[in-house]
Amino acid sequence: MKSSRHGSPWTGLGTVVAKETADHLSSARMRILEALVFLTALYSAYLAIQAIRQTIGESPFLFLRLLTMTEDPLPFSFIGLLGFLIPLVAIALAFDSVNGEFNRRTLSRVLAQPIYRDALLLGKFLGALLSLTIALVALWLLVIGLGLLLLGLPPSTEEMVRMLGFLVATIAYGGVWLALAMLFSVLFRAPATAALAALGTWLLFSLFWSIITPIVTTLIAGPPEGILGPRLIYLDVQQIIDRLSPNTLYAETALALLQPATRALGPVLLSQLEGAVLGAPLPVTQSFVLIWPQLTGLIAATILIYAIAYVLFQRQEIRA
Amino acid sequence: MLKRLVVVAFLVASAGPASHATLAAEPNQAISGVFLTTRYPVLTVKAGETTTVDLSLHNYKLPPQGFTLSVPEIAEGWKATLLGGGQPVGAIEVGPDSDESLQLRLEPPSGAGQGDYHFTVEAKGAAQDLKLPITVTVGKEVPAKLKMTTNFPDLRGTATTAFKYRVTVTNDSGRNATINMTADAPKNFQVNFTEAYGSQQLTSIPIEAGKSKDLDASVSLPRETPAGNYKMTIHARTEQASADLPVSLTILGQPRLSVSGEGGRLSGDAYAGQDSQLTVVLHNDGSEAARDVEMSATAPEGWKTSFDPKTVPEIAAGKSQNVKMTMTPSPRAIAGDYQMTVRANASGGIDESANFRITVLTSTLWGAIGIAIIAVALLVVVFAVARFGRR
To answer: pTM of the full predicted structure?
Structure first.
């Protein structure tokens, strides 16, 4: 299979991205999803603001509390809601991206143009990611605006840096699910199967992972409690398995960024806490150092899943 | 006169026995004339005291007449003044059947001793020359006297010691007195008087004759007072008497250390598992040099701390000394704030410490590894493109 390419593989990428983004942004599917996410997320932020106005007098990180507070009647905080709903949006955007074209028999027609498959797949991915990013940035700005309006004070520089980091992490988290849904749309010819597979994975990670983790950990590392109390090896293995889920990675990132007092995300020995001033906020850079593995993990996972989808797509017979 | 007696006899005859008692109550019907009298012509007074003698000039049944007043006999050195109605008077008139009161004021000379002093007051009228001799005896007087004692007149301590003298003040004079307490102390020394076992500060205290009271004289002095011997005098005064009590204070020099960071900062940064330097400033704001100052630190488990120099042989009074502290947080330390205590021990039981807040930063090495992971993922994509890219 030695062959040399004529022209750049990026040819037509811009066109594909523009077309895909335009399609997404004007589609009814996207509007329904946006309405769902915006309404629930804004409602949760609004409830948090109400609670802050009533209860909290002074806190150096008021704006961050707005994103992390859980208020009745919603069972989620703003970040919990995003962690739950963003995979849904990403899956909805990408589950039929490739097999949909195939089933409508438009794939051969598109590829008859001077566009490589590379550009088509990357363009579809980037188009979906761009749509998701636009929606998320809009939501992020809305929440900040709501906070400014109802709390009546501006966020500090540190808060802005932390919230920007949170936005990037949210986009990366959406990217993982986009890439996964795209992988399934390459893998399965029927869009319904692809959607089901993607939703199944979403359910697995968002609902059942916390049930599966202890079972698998016990199988690998033995019982959680030893004679002298909790066993460290069990905790370590549990954490490793837990962190296979992008939801865990995202939740940890959001927690460390938006709650500055978070100093560690794993099990901490009592000896490590000796002399520590608890409740003191970590410097921004240290919070980023803390979540750097999680953030890079999310980004790397996105790239890797995309690479698999790419390899599969390249090897696929598409004439039909 | 005869005619009047006849009338009275007539009245007696007509009124009977009941009216007779009325007549008996008129005792001076037989007396007539002008008299100069005083109640106590011989009296005893205290030495040094001005005495006033009340005199009375009475006229019985005589027409009004005037008298020239004088004091022809005055004891030597004394000053005698006749007063009428509060003013010095030289002559007096007295109406029939009335009396006028006068005062003789006698001022003794200073240092008038015991003994009898004779005076005569003379009232000279047209028909009469009245003389009234008065004798004043100066009695034996108890002189006003105060006594002040303390058990421990010489106290010793450092400038921060609470010095207290227990002073017993005795009023040995014959009269109750209010005693003012003052003290002559070196500049900036403050002396406060309180009643013994009491807390209320006072400036004067009443003491009955012959009684004594205990007072506390507490001395507070500036912390910067140099070592040395200081003399003070406690004074007790009344109008008549005073007593002085010399006391002394021996102030010993005292070093006083303070531990802080550079510019007063009590915080610093350190990387987990790496050496970090922090400058600790030792300042001696006491009045004597601090000797053999030894540094130590209490840090969380797994931390290493060392000082350069570990011991400072001497820090002169008012001088500062920088000590470099090298600390190495545990490699497993979690990022964030930690508290550590830096302690300086000097000879003489001086133990000073300061709490430092150390922000532990973790190495950004993991950040680089994270970027490497992303690079590897991108390399995989590049490889896939190279391997599977189609024409």
So the answer is: 0.66
